[in-house]
Amino acid sequence: MPTSQRRRSINLTISEDVIDTAKSLKLNASEAAEAGLREAIARRQAELWRAENRAAIDAHNARIARQGPLLTPGWVDDEA
């Protein structure tokens, strides 16, 4: 986590059992929340990218299904 970035205080509502367990394990709730948000952001960005590029992905997959790959890797056995 870059330490040079500005930080902002916010309020979060977290289940008591979750925060109690985190405290008992001496976890830093701010760091854990930030890490979780970073993961959620990455997943959502990937979902959005796939949705935005769905037509191109589908067209590519359809072409591969019709014509096969443009190049056959050397490790592929042609006689299979």
What does this structure look like?
The chain has 80 residues and is mainly α. It has three helices and no strands. It has helices spanning 16-24, 29-52, 54-67. The mean pLDDT is 91.
Biggest pleated-sheet summary: none
Number of helices: 3
Order of helices and strands: HHH
Portion of residues in beta strands equals under 5%
Strands, total number: 0
Note the gap between the termini: 49 Å
Tell me the helix content: 55-70%
User: What are the segments in which pLDDT stays under 50 over at least 5 consecutive residues?
Assistant: none
What sort of overall outline do the alpha carbons produce when their principal axes are compared? elongated
Our Rg estimate from Cα atoms comes to 23 Å
Average pLDDT, all residues: 91
* Classification by helices and strands: mainly alpha
Give the secondary structure arrangement, pairings included.
Blueprint: H1 16-24, H2 29-52, H3 54-67
Short structural description:
This protein has 80 residues and is mainly alpha-helical. 59% of the residues lie in helices and 0% in strands. The protein has helices at 16-24, 29-52, 54-67.
Keywords, separated by commas or semicolons:
80 residues, mainly alpha, 0% strand
